[in-house]
From TrEMBL:
This is Adenine DNA glycosylase. Its EC number is 3.2.2.31. Keywords: 4Fe-4S, DNA damage, DNA repair, Glycosidase, Hydrolase, Iron, Iron-sulfur, Metal-binding. GO terms for molecular function: 4 iron, 4 sulfur cluster binding; 8-oxo-7,8-dihydroguanine DNA N-glycosylase activity; adenine/guanine mispair binding; metal ion binding; oxidized purine DNA binding; purine-specific mismatch base pair DNA N-glycosylase activity. Its cofactor is [4Fe-4S] cluster. Residues 60-212 form the HhH-GPD domain. It comes from Rhodococcus rhodnii LMG 5362. It catalyses: Hydrolyzes free adenine bases from 7,8-dihydro-8-oxoguanine:adenine mismatched double-stranded DNA, leaving an apurinic site.
């Protein structure tokens, strides 16, 4: 691509289709046959799913497990079947519906994205990666995933699972190492079958293999459908690089933010400061820091009376409420 996206990000460089010397190909026929028999029945993979519904699923799945996403996504596609339906809801409604999926800024960005799609794209999610990248909250992975899984585009889609499968099957490494967008995209680009529909299915199959068989901690090589794997042929050498530190949750600012958000989601009226103070008595400084960050991120607003509400809940001074002239109907 040559033009920069509308949001000012640098233009994405198209990966070079060149397999590194000595790298092994992945048997597409074996992988696709396995996928046809063993793929999970995930709701966003079913027939009749719209590009908007695929986009919602991809945003939800970015940092949240499938089992937690599926029931929420099922509710959302009924409540907000098209972008304009979400755009006319308040940010607070979307945040409440997001519930405990975590990282709620994703919900705000998706609400903003819905408004852009309704206003500028006639309620239709774009097909091409470059236009998708111009949408609020849509990054390189999400843009490619929507283009591929909603429209069947032949574009490499690379997540953690795909990087792991390629590292093992193609390069003979136990772990993929630090992400490198251009290198990772090029690695997958050269593996894709030529026909568009087959390439899209291949991308889904790579992800499925990494999620269910070629897992990070306990790869089940006996169940792997690939007839040849560079890592197995090398004797499954251990990873010799630094290990990723496990992300803890207990006691972090993220946990405190979640507790504050839970109080606001469950309240029908603005919340007093002392109510928020009670959610985290262990470290008042940490609690204050968490609340301040929620205000800065636009997830929480403070009313003229000094009370606290979710963004766009009709009581605070949100941009959305001023622009739309709406209040929460509850």
């Amino acid at each position: 691509m040559t033009a920069a996206p509308a949001d000012g990000r640098p233009a994405e460089r198209r990966p070079t289709e060149r397999r590194p010397e000595g790298a092994r190909a992945i048997d597409a026929r074996a992988l696709l046959a396995w996928y046809e028999r063993h793929r999970r029945d995930l709701p966003w993979r079913r027939d009749g799913i719209s590009a908007w519904q695929v986009l919602m699923s991809e945003v939800m799945l970015q940092q949240t497990p499938v089992a937690r996403v599926a029931p929420i996504w099922e509710e959302w596609i009924v409540r907000w079947p098209v972008p304009s339906a979400m755009a006319t809801s308040s940010p607070a409604d979307v945040l409440r519906a997001w519930g405990k999926l975590g990282y709620p800024r994703r919900a705000l960005r998706l609400h903003e994205c819905a408004g852009v799609l309704a206003r500028d794209h006639d309620d239709v999610v774009p097909e091409d990666v470059e236009t998708l990248l111009s949408l609020p909250g849509v990054g390189a992975y999400t843009a490619r995933a929507v283009a591929c899984f909603a429209y069947g585009a032949r574009v490499p889609v690379v997540d953690t699972n795909v990087r792991r499968v390629v590292a093992r099957a193609v390069h003979g490494s136990a772990e993929p190492g630090p992400p490198s967008t251009n290198r990772d995209l090029a690695d997958v680009e050269v593996l894709l079958p030529r026909p568009r529909p087959r390439a899209a299915t291949y991308s889904a199959a790579l992800m499925e293999l990494g999620a269910t068989v070629c897992t990070a901690r306990t790869p089940d090589c006996a169940r792997c459908p690939l007839p040849r794997c560079a890592w197995v042929e090398a004797g499954r050498p251990a990873h010799d690089g630094p290990r990723r530190a496990a992300q803890k949750f207990a006691g972090t600012d993220r946990q405190v933010r979640g507790k504050i958000m839970a109080v606001l989601r469950e309240s029908d009226v603005p919340v007093r400061r002392d109510t928020i103070d009670r959610v985290w008595l262990t470290d008042p400084g940490q609690r204050d820091r968490a609340l301040d960050s929620l205000l800065v991120d636009g997830l929480v607003e403070q009313t003229a009376a000094g009370l606290f509400v979710l963004a766009g809940d009709g009581h605070g001074a949100s941009t959305w409420a001023r622009t739309n002239g709406s209040t929460n109907s509850r």
